[in-house]
Amino acid sequence: MKQGIGCAVVAGMAAPLMLLAAVVVLSPGDGAAQAAGCGGAAVSPRISAPTQAAGFSGEQLANAAVLMDDAKKLGLPVAAQVLVVQAAIGESSLRSIDYTDHTGTVDGVAVTIGILQQDDSYGPRSDRLDVAKAGTGFLSRLKDVPGWESLEPTIAIHRVQRNADPQHYAKYRDAALEVVQALSGAKVSAGECGGGAASGAGDDLPWGHGPVDVSSDLGMYTRECVDFALWRVNQAYGSTSAPFRFTNSNFRGDGGVLGNAVTWLDGWRAKGWPVGTAPRPGAVVYYAPGVGGSGDQGHVAVVKAVDPDGSFLEEGYNGSLPPEDHTYYTRTVQDGTPTAFLYVPQKG
């Protein structure tokens, strides 16, 4: 590794996740009232629905309208309407199907079925194939997810569905927004709200798909763990383009460089920023050499979300084995694994 800016490989990473606190905001349209913030009131599907939206039509849009109505009946906000439609697009393309893929099949029998691919914990087969009952089942569980309103949509859905790939639902977000907008006649767009979530949105490192190990605008080698972690720190302070607020050379403030992952704990303390042992969204995860599979330069990453059991979702760069090294990764980590958590003070 190059002195001062490298980081070591951490083995055993999982599939990518993203976490960005998100909300749906409605603008007035066709008589719909504007929603306010994360808790904007649910919208009603129109009687005269469009014939096509986001590539869906007929029965698919009728099913989406039923799901939206489920959320409204439960007193949930428009954000929940978009989430249940997004989940249904990702699970079944808005169709109530009686089959599934290989992951939902046991001994040749489809275990997960219906518009939301639900198992028997949701009730008998007939209930899971009933769009309204399936939607109510999903939404009832969504309500029990702590802070679901401020989770990135794919993560909120995953907390209910437990898909093998939590990132699976992200690509259906735009389609869900379009469907809800078309069915309600309201202007729907994605916005952001707080809730203690980490900054950033998945693999958004500006130079993350460029050359490896050339100098970045942060003074780090590109696509290293330290490069990504320092990018997240800058994002937390609203610094998203050059000249960046924090760089390798100016972070500490004592003339020293922030350097390799192994020296980040000392750098944090030199700056006077807090250090602890509990994961928090947005905190830098610090692994001393040899901890958590790290090499002799250690490893740093970022906490994206904390689960109720104390485990957390971690994101970073250069944490996978070749040929996936120097790329974005996520994994679930038990909170006792890292050496420390380096907290980023709130912007002030």
Structure write-up:
The protein is of the alpha+beta class and 348 residues long. The protein has two domains: 23-191, no CATH class; 225-342, Alpha-Beta Complex (endopeptidase fold (from Nostoc punctiforme)), CATH 3.90.1720. 26% of the residues lie in helices and 14% in strands. The protein has eight helices and twelve strands. The strands form four sheets. A six-stranded antiparallel sheet has the order 7-12-8-9-10-11, covered by helices on one side. The protein has a two-stranded antiparallel ribbon with strand order 1-6. Helix 1 (58-73) runs antiparallel to helix 2 (78-92) and helix 2 (78-92) packs across helix 5 (153-161). Residues 1-6, 8-39 and 191-197 have low confidence and may be disordered. Residues 1-21 form the signal peptide. Pfam families: CHAP.
How much helical structure, as a percent, in the residues?
Answer: 25-40%
Mean of residue pLDDT values:
81
> How much β-strand is present in the residues?
5-15%
DSSP summary, beta strand count: 12
Number of domains: 2
User: What series of H and E elements makes up the topology?
Assistant: EEEHHEEHHHHEHHEEEEEE
What structural class do you assign from the helix and strand content? alpha+beta
Shape assignment: elongated
Report how far the terminal alpha carbons are from each other. 35 Å
Give the low-confidence spans.
1-6, 8-39, 191-197
Continuous helix count: 8
What's the Cα radius of gyration?
A: 22 Å
Reported for the largest beta sheet, the result is: 6 strands, antiparallel
Strand arrangement in the largest pleated sheet: 7-12-8-9-10-11
